[in-house]
Amino acid sequence: AASPTRSYAITLLPGDGIGPEVISVAKNVLLLAGAIEGIEFNFHEMPVGGAALDLTGVPLPGETLSAAQQSDAVLLGAIGGYKWDNNEKHLKPETGLLQLREGLKVFANLRPATVLPQLVDASTLKKEVAEGVDLMVVRELTGGIYFGKPRGFSTNQNGEEIGLNTEVYSISEIDRIARVAFETARKRRGKLCSVDKANVLEASMLWRKRVMAIALEYPDVELTHMYVDNAAMQLVRNPKQFDTIVTNNIFGDILSDEASMITGSIGMLPSASLGEKAWTGPGLFEPIHGSAPDIAGQDKANPLATVLSAAMLLKYGLGEADAAERIEAAVLHTLDRGFRTGDIYSDGNKLVGCKEMGEEVLKAVDLNV
Ligand code: ATP
Ligand code: MG
């Protein structure tokens, strides 16, 4: 094991709905894996979302944001719920999440889509297509058509109303997301596919040119290019061909949802959002699922997406790959032993709640499997 002196400040943002239940499990898993690997964590738990609204009147209190900014990494549960859906007096809880992403300047969103052998039947694809899928979508998060100007409503020459948005990427924006993608591919199987529409769009032509330029810094990573329409098709035809995919904001929005549906297990999928200091934090790590108000407080939530987000926090946020792999192995071992929450349950397995699933993962972390 590595030297026993590493210490990190982690901001925990449990949030709403099932957030507190799944964060509690992930915190215990981090503590145990850290203790075994010689890592000390200082956790600061802060309110965000609806919980913060009730407490302070705003969804992202200044103290929460500054704690997050000053920490080494941020682990978020989930935000929102019925209770605040028709909120006229205040900001919506979800505003807190947007402000948090803005405040941490996270420009790279990483979403793995892995079909675990134990859960291959959950996939929306045929078994032989789904088996062994293990890919990562790296989505640019703060540029492109979602933010480009000019935008808005106006009138064209014929006096007809138009809606207008603009796809804009600068060289520096492309270069930094490309570097995150190459670094990510390097930590995986060393293959990167850049997805664009360079046959039609100038922003994509520049994207392709810069990705090729950055590739010179990463001779060990194999780079390919694909048009987005083809990529959308290839993802369902033969997703195994992909290792790491890098793409712009809008294509990434669509392709990462498509990729997550391949796995069919929303309770299993983690994510990472990395900022300027991408490799030292504070990155933002969270499950891709929402607050699941329909099952909140009933000990039914699957905590594994959050546990796997904690593993991403270790690997991509802190550079602690050994501890991350220990947690991933523990999750696989727990599934191997047949433990399932309701969302991934099938005949012949053992149905457990959120807490019990957490206890089983802890046992597996301890076993060093
Ligand atoms: P968002 O908040 O992103 O808009 P949403 O409201 O569309 O999300 P979720 O809150 O993710 O959706 O819930 C969708 C469905 O998936 C619900 O039925 C919920 O119970 C279920 N679900 C989501 N996360 C989990 C989990 N971790 N374990 C079990 N079931 C889950
Ligand atoms: Mg929701």
UniProtKB/TrEMBL annotation:
Q: What does the note under cofactor report?
A: Binds 1 Mg(2+) or Mn(2+) ion per subunit.
Give the molecular function GO annotations: 3-isopropylmalate dehydrogenase activity; magnesium ion binding; NAD binding
User: What EC designation does it have?
Assistant: 1.1.1.85
Q: Which Gene3D superfamilies match?
A: Isopropylmalate Dehydrogenase (3.40.718.10)
Pathway(s) per entry:
Amino-acid biosynthesis; L-leucine biosynthesis; L-leucine from 3-methyl-2-oxobutanoate: step 3/4
Keywords per UniProt: Amino-acid biosynthesis, Branched-chain amino acid biosynthesis, Leucine biosynthesis, Magnesium, Manganese, Metal-binding, NAD, Oxidoreductase
Please give the cofactor(s) recorded in the UniProt entry for this protein: Mn(2+); Mg(2+)
Q: Where is the Isopropylmalate dehydrogenase-like domain?
A: 9-361
| Domain of life per record | Eukaryota
Biological process GO annotation list?
L-leucine biosynthetic process
InterPro entries in the cross-refs: IsoCit/isopropylmalate_DH_CS, IsoPropMal-DH-like_dom, Isopropylmalate_DH
Quickly give the catalysed reaction: (2R,3S)-3-isopropylmalate + NAD(+) = 4-methyl-2-oxopentanoate + CO2 + NADH
Tell me which Pfam families the record gives.
Iso_dh (PF00180)
Per the record, the similarity remark reads: Belongs to the isocitrate and isopropylmalate dehydrogenases family.
Q: How does it assemble?
A: Homodimer.
Q: What does this protein do?
A: Catalyzes the oxidation of 3-carboxy-2-hydroxy-4-methylpentanoate (3-isopropylmalate) to 3-carboxy-4-methyl-2-oxopentanoate. The product decarboxylates to 4-methyl-2 oxopentanoate.
The entry's protein name is 3-isopropylmalate dehydrogenase
